[in-house]
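quick one, 596 residues, struct below
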Amino acid sequence: MVVGNWFGAVRTPLWVSRIVFVVGVVVLASAYLPGIAARTRLVNELVPDSFPAAATTGGAAIGVILIVLSRGLRRGKYRAWLLALLLTVLAAGIHLLRGLQAEQAFLSVLLVVLLVTARRSFTARPDPRSLRRVVQVLVAGPVLAVALGWLWLTLDSDGQVPGTDGWDRLSQAALGLLGIPGPVDFVSTSSRTVAAVGLVILGAAVLLVAVVTALAPAGGPHPITAAEQARVRGLLREWGWVDSLAYFATRDDRSVVFSPTGRSAVSYRVIGGVSFSAGDPLGHPDDWPQAVAAWLEETRSYGWAPANLGCSERGAHVYHQAGLEVLEVGDEAVLHASEFSLDGRSMRHVRQAISRARRAGITVSVRRVRDLAPEQRETLRGKAIAWRDGSIERGFAMALGRFGQARDDGGLVVIATDADGELAGLLSFVPWGDDALSLDLMRRTSDATNGIVELMVATLMEEAEHFGISKVSLNFSAFRSVFARGERLGAGPVLRAWRSVLLWASRFAQIEALYRSNAKYHPDWVPRFLVYGDITDLPRVATAVLRAEALLVAPDWYRRLSRKAPRAGAVEEIPSIAAVPEQRPTPSDVRESTRR
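---
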């Protein structure tokens, strides 16, 4: 019974991936370890001279590829399982060809048995678009590698015997990719070795690129379509009041999966093999479990790790009941128009900041997006880009990713101008149901008067009744409770130590500053949670969060090469408002850089 349970556990994707990784290391090491002399002589007498050399090269390549495949096996990828099975069978034969390495061959056979018996654990589908890319790599890769090898042999011909022609070099390059000696004669052993190693590396590079392409995480079944956008907005019209983050589900870089009844949905984005949703499910709360179940079924079918950032306590219960783990990560600040007041000693600092801004000539106006003329929206959009902190905008869970478009005409903008009538700051809000707002964008000039943000917030709350607004969601404060409780008298040593760590981290990220900037308004604090599948998934979930929120980004030069970076001027990073048709989702890139 114990043996049966152990064997069943070993056949799980996690353990199979670990075993394949170890076998890959053994195969790679065996390719370069000296064989037993008697066995090697016997093999050399039975097979052509090129076979052991090719076996050495092939063994090294298979070892590296098995190591790479272990990651895909951990996600239960069928394609990774099939490749691992074929390569392990090939590895067994290569071990015998290289010098009758019976021990390593037997280890490969055992792995073949394990892979065959564990077949049912590997059902995750690949990205539907990856097959085309793999074919492109396998067709174009060898051609490019042979061309590069021929060019190298032509330019560096000092080690070749005189009279070597271009056809010999081309044949040498083609055969050398497979580790097989070609027709070119070299003047020394060192020249032959250098050429052989270089060509083998080119061939291995083609294989690795093909494998990595085949195992690349799926980017979602498809981007959200116009029809799905319409269904999402239908759910928002009826149930958008439930969650302050609901409107952000209309982001153009999200996909969506609906419950079987169509009464609820989960919006998400796939990042690095993580299906990353944000906020609560959309739609009728009673139907949320069905939407979460449909989402989890999709994550399992593609081998993604499920994760959610920013769900409320109500949503966290639904995710937890579906078998996911929950971790509180901070609080959302919510102001109620009926309770907000600048009176009292506790608001003294806010009043002082507002007074400074007013003395500097700052004036504030509040407008609906629908009431702005197109040229006004374009001007504000340009300022939002110009005032951005850095070349990349931040935000995903609580940011819309576009500004001032006609399809978001239910939003609201708070505009600050200086004494000369020039724009000095703006706040952009998206609808939260019919009578509430959620902060999307906060921008101001780099030399703005201290107190401009406080004046914009206070003016909005003063005019909230005029716009029919009952409450406003402001910034998200990460680990707010740690700061709040850690500074109190009687806080325990663990809590104080955790607070000290966050204070240190605040030197690099505005963790404490965001908490302080929210706390001065004395808001209601609404806890928000991180949801994940398993403790072993936390590292890649954390990486996906950092990537989605643009806290972890590639260098500018790399993004330019991959055509993801803005051109000089950066205005083209966000589509012109006039160029965005309402009926189709168009990617854009304005996100809040100092909040959430």
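Residues 36-51, 564-596 have pLDDT under 50 and may be disordered.
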